[in-house]
Amino acid sequence: MTAILEMQGITKTFPGVKALSNVNLSVREGEIHAICGENGAGKSTLMKVLSGVYPHGSYDGEILYDGKPARFRDIRDSEHAGIVIIHQELALMRDLTVAQNIWIGREPRLSWGRIDEARQNADTAALFRRMNLGIDPRGAVGGLTIARQQMVEIAKALSHRSRVLIMDEPTAALTEAEIAELFTIIRQLRAEGVGIVYISHKMDEIKRIADRITVMRDGAHVGTVEAADTPMARIIAMMVGREIGEESVSVPDLSAAPVALEVRGLTRGRAVRGVSFALKQGEILGFAGLMGAGRTETARAIFGAEPAEAGEVLVHGKPALIRSPSDAVSAGIGYLSEDRKHYGLALGMDVRDNIALASLDRHADALGRIDERALAGIARDYIARLRIRTPHDRQPVRLLSGGNQQKVVIAKWLLRDCDILIFDEPTRGIDVGAKSEIYRLLNDLAAAGKAIIVISSELPEILRLSHRIAVMCEGRLTGILPGGASQERIMALATQREGMVVE
């Protein structure tokens, strides 16, 4: 197959850090080329160079497109050439219709410059038929689920008739059925000769869909291998520079441990319906369920982010009146949201300030003056402890990779020293090496007596971490299983709709 695209000797430097060092990449016609690596490996930076986010002249090296030098000044240049990137973070306008989002800036026109909305809607409908999607082009994007919004982003990229399509974690918010639909579309595009760059932390997905895999580490190109001929263990070892073992859960004896958190009859509309459970000190309670099961809503109700309409929360045996997140924090409950950018981080602040954000009152004198020297030492300690990849503690947190941002949020709640910690999708967007580190961290916290709730859409993660497994379906807690329970048993409870009986 002919190479559509070649990146040769790409080097990109930021103040205090070399993000890319002499990286090479080639993408062939009709190829699905996966790029993987730990957070901070340089994957996103490389794609930003390719897509014109970092314009020609801001990096060293050369991009060849159809064998000719390409010098993209901005994203519009790369899109015009047929190179389109679908970012992990959604960039849709919620108040506009689906069709308006897809064709914004490229609207078909009638006389006098009027937008031809009928054609715009028809062209969108044709795209959705190609993707086998039943989405109304005239509906507002804000009324769609996150999964559906992601599919709209993909449709928008396809509308550019791209020859090189870059997908950055495209399945992060998709169900298994939607992933299957997406993979069908990707294979169709491959058959049409489109070169696809597929970035993902999900190794099983990469093995299913990729033709070749390029591995990056610390801003450098480690190697490119054939997907079909390369064992997953070798790919992971290339990514992290070490072997990652698959450990099974070790369930401690907690029979004598006191109850740290008790929830009784928690209710919030149809999203949370009469949920009751107890969580012991030193226990990791995993919450499993399908999308829309009510797991996140339950966590947010406990934390006071969406106060419950009924029910009771007890902390260490005493009723806790939780009407807001500050009430929850005062009661010793910390919450790591699945949406770290909106609810976990202050993107306008640096790493140090984000780590200290929930504990500033503990590092101020009577006049409210902050002990910056003490905070600097604390921040550097957590940066080292959690292996947060940042040039220094004053680095703006928005410049960190997604996985390292997640670690900053974890550090914030560790510093606050909450007795009860709720981790909602703690490893979403995090590579396998960082996942292993976070798993060890959670187990260490539990061993130290912390009571932990872990919500995860990845069943292997639930099975690896959980001492017990709470399963939800349509807002109800359908059962609590012991650690190490079978996937079949979990899925039976996860699909147990009201009135059904699991045998």
List keywords for this structure.
Rossmann fold, 20 strands, 503 residues, globular, six-stranded mixed β-sheet, 17 helices, alpha/beta
Plain-language structure description:
The chain is α/β, with parallel strands linked by helices and 503 residues long. It folds into two domains: 238 residues, Rossmann fold (3-Layer(aba) Sandwich); 236 residues, 3-Layer(aba) Sandwich (Rossmann fold). 33% of the residues lie in helices and 24% in strands. Strand 11 and strand 12 form a beta hairpin.
The average pLDDT value, as a whole number, equals 87
- Considering the protein shown, what is the CATH homologous superfamily of the largest domain? P-loop containing nucleotide triphosphate hydrolases
The total tally of domains equals 2
Q: Report the CATH C-level class of the largest domain.
A: Alpha Beta
Net shape:
globular
Provide a short characterization of the protein structure.
With 503 residues, the chain is α/β, with parallel strands linked by helices.
